[in-house]
Amino acid sequence: MRNLIEDARPPLAEAMSKMGVDESVWTPLLGRSTVEDHGDAALPCHALSKTLRRSPSEIADEVVSLIGGALDGIADASSVSGFVNLRAQPSWLSRRIEAMMPDPRLGIGLEECRTYAVDYSAPNVAKEMHVGHLRSTVIGDAIVRMLEFRGHLVHRENHVGDWGTPFGMLIEHLLDLGEAEAANELGVGDLDSFYKQARAKFVTEEEFAERSRQRVVLLQGGDEETLRLWRVLVDESMRYFNEVYSMLGVLLTDDDIMGESRYQDLLPVVVDRLGDAGILEHSEGADVAYPGGWVNREGEPLPMIIRKADGGYNYSTSDLACIIDRVERLKCDSFLYVVGTPQKQHFEMVFQVARQAGFMDDGHNAVHVNFGSVMDADGKVLKSREGDVIKLFDLLAEAVTRARAAIEEKNPDLQGEQRERVARIVGIGAVKYADLSTERTKDYVFDWERMLSFDGDTAPYLQYAHARICSIFRKWGGDRGSLSESEISCSLPEECLLARRLTDFPAVVDESTHAYIPHRLCAHLHSIASAFASFYEACPVLSAEEEGTVHSRLALCDLTARELELGLGLLGIEVPQRM
RNA sequence: GGGCGUGUAGCAUAGCCUGGAUAAUGCACCGGCCUCCUAAGCCGGGGACCGCGGGUUCGAAUCCUGCCGCGCCCGCCA
What percent of chain A has pLDDT over 70? Predict the structure, then answer.
């Protein structure tokens, strides 16, 4: 109701000025109503009581009477227990809807273009993508889509874990298995057992461990044959990751891969620059920086290790290299890291050092878009290293299977290729929505039934609303585009409620985008679908008595469908025409 | 030990930033609704000392503070 408040402000200002209340006093009080039954916006007058020396309800009464008819065509004002309540009038709602109808962007404007790097997904080569990886991938993808829609230039950065000491043992294991066999195992997505076998040998066989360590040296030394073997591991893993990405329907492609290996040349540069900036210190043979403000278990200042005593680099170094690359090569001014909350402190330290060293300045905005962990039933964080984790691939496959079964049961007319397509859209949509619709910083316990539910506040519920609207339009047979000039009339309460929700859409997209909180958009889309479901029951569209009503309701249907499609699209969720 | 986060009906969550009225939503539960645009739906109902105690305020789920429970971080791993 952002627009309602804007429109109601001038008449309200006049009344308040007559009351002798300064704008700076009452403006912060004016806001959307917390109890919808009372209205859409409200001005609580309790805080004015002391200075005006009157009771809140007397003040509210007088404000309402001073407003008089000045809000005609905008809102009805009423006084209830010290609140001035404003309820949008149906005619105001109608005008808002009419204004949105012809706009392909549905009232969501373009912003001044910034250049973003969004770091997300980041699976590890030769390691399974499990349900925990869903969050970064899905949340990051939604944020990318929202930013791009607002007109920003977005670099997707898939910071794949493709470098480091584990690759010694992985390459040796590859050789032990034989390249062909190993490639096969990795290609079918059995990354988990590959990694575990290698690790098991590493800890139990000294000879293997020694070979692995030597292999790391060869890898870092740029040995050609070793690099070729490393490339096999990376390629096979990426082939598998791409399969998951494609199933999931995310934007990531091979062009977005910027694995750790790509920053190796920059690592010595990081050391040099930190040295030049005078913030590098030597400690026990290592090069470290002290961001300040943190202490370790012993109460000593917490160092950020830049170069280890053995000459190797740490992941902080790699993240600093990323910042240099993104600032200087990609010319980014905004950096989003869609990475789990456990790394919060790490990123705070990295950003701090990057600023101290001048890699970033005040014009650069770096945000750790953190998210909570996925826990198992015992409340433990799901970790790929131990235990049997649920493969992301299996979760997605199960979602599609269940969606297919639901379609067979509820809409047997859908057959063949079309059914497969819808099953994919519905199943994958359910999984994505389940993750996107909760506040991202909270941990959650993984639950098959929750992830795969198709009832209630789920993607299929929103998709269903969309499919029903498409069904109405199929039956109608007219040209949807012609509805953009329709006159809207909101007479029944269900029409008004739907119009309210539709009107709020742009403001919610705004908030969701700027705070990087997809769940806010999810909640609003659900409220739209819910309002539509009530409208659908109470307001016959095609069989309405008057032609004007038919067109008005068709237009509401059209806008509802477009908001659902756009909103879900921004979340990376498709909408079917029928389901 | 230091730090970060979290606690809301049986379950799962939103609301907390920016204080406001009867704490919202879904699942589950109870009762209704398909000769009518898709019942993956709609309508109605029961169910909450918002972890506990102080404080600030006209007003606290929301802000401050102290406890308690849970999770995480504080690796020359990434």
Answer: 99
Residue A541 falls inside a structural domain: yes
Q: Which residue has the tokens 């962990």?
A: A373
Mind giving me the DSSP string for A354-413?
Answer: HHHTTSS-TT-EEEE--BPPEE-TTSPBP-SSSS-PPBHHHHHHHHHHHHHHHHHHH-TT
Would the pLDDT of A181 be above 90?
no
Cα A212 to Cα A216: distance, rounded to the nearest angstrom: 6
DSSP three-state, residue A290: coil
**Parallel, antiparallel, or unpaired for β A281-283 and A41-44?**
unpaired
The predicted structure's pLDDT at residue A383: 67
For residue A188, the SS3 value is coil
E strands, A107-207, are: 115-119, 153-157
**HSE of A408, CA atoms in CB hemisphere, 13 A:** 8
Residues above pLDDT 90, as percent of chain A = 87
Q: Is residue A7 part of a domain?
A: yes
Nearest nt to the CA of A43 via C1' is B20
Q: Tokens 């990751």, residue?
A: A241
Q: Which residue is nearest to nucleotide B17 (CA to C1')?
A: A515
Q: Is the CB of A405 under 7 A from strand B?
A: no
**Residue A318, CB, less than 7 Å from strand B?**
yes
Q: Which CATH number covers residue A29?
A: 3.30.1360.70
| DSSP H or E segment with residue A458 | none
In a domain, A149, yes or no: no
Q: What pLDDT digit, counting tens, does each position of A90-101 carry?
A: 999 999 999 999
User: In Å, how far are A119, A135, A457, A459, A531 from A433, measured between CA atoms?
Assistant: 21, 11, 9, 6, 19
Residue A578, CB, strand B, below 7 Å: yes
**How far apart, in whole angstroms, are the C-alpha atoms of residue A229 and residue A182?**
11
- Domain harbouring A473, CATH code: 1.10.730.10
Say yes or no: Cβ of A168 under 7 A from any atom of strand B. no
Last residue of a domain, one of A88, A110, A136: A88
Protein-covered nucleotides of chain B (CB closer than 7 Å) are 1-6, 12-15, 17, 20-22, 25-28, 36-43, 58-59, 61, 70-78
**DSSP, res A493:** H
User: Pick from A88, A118, A140: which residue ends a domain?
Assistant: A88
CA distance A211 to A176: 11
Q: Over the stretch A20-57, which tens digit does the pLDDT of each residue have?
A: 999 999 999 999 999 999 999 999 999 999 899 999 99
Looking at the 3D structure of chain A, how many domains does it have?
A: 2
Question: For residue A148, is it within any domain?
Answer: no
Q: Per the structure block, which two tokens stand in for A526? A: 């659900």
* Distance (Å, whole) CA A90 – CA A503: 12
**Structural domain containing residue A46:** 2-88
